[in-house]
Design goal:
alpha/beta, Rossmann fold, globular
């Protein structure tokens, strides 16, 4: 199964805005899951840690998680986030496929293409 990192805006001026950003990432993650890939949604993983350690710590940690993924899916509104822009740029720099917000068909096509060799190998018993 492919792992798709969900990248988007996290911070907000209020707790409500942060919660809305987390919810938006979760919605995108659910769409990723419906396509057959496992979403990694850092927003949901660390949302209750906001204000604990430095932003640099959390961004560094989420970048490390992203580099272990197979692809990146952007959340609508991602250009408004310095962190999401860094995630996108880093993913592209290391050659991870990056799918723009709403690019579910392109992601579905990619999943089908990368899953096909695995299915064929399983059918051959290799």
């Amino acid at each position: 199964m492919k792992i798709v990192y969900v990248a988007g805006k996290f911070r907000g001026k209020t707790a409500w805005e942060v919660a809305e950003n987390v919810r938006a990432a979760e919605r995108v993650g659910f769409e990723v899951a419906k396509l057959g890939a496992m979403p990694l949604i850092p927003h949901a993983n660390t949302s209750n840690f906001d204000g604990t350690l430095t932003a640099e710590f959390w961004l560094s940690g989420t970048l490390a998680l992203m580099l272990r993924c197979d692809a990146v899916m952007m959340v609508p509104g991602w250009p408004d986030s310095q962190g999401a822009r860094l995630e996108r740029d880093t993913a592209k720099a290391v050659g991870l496929p990056v799918f723009d917000a709403g690019g579910y068909q392109a992601l579905a096509d990619w999943i089908a293409a990368v899953a096909a060799p695995v299915v064929e190998a399983e059918e051959r018993g290799t």
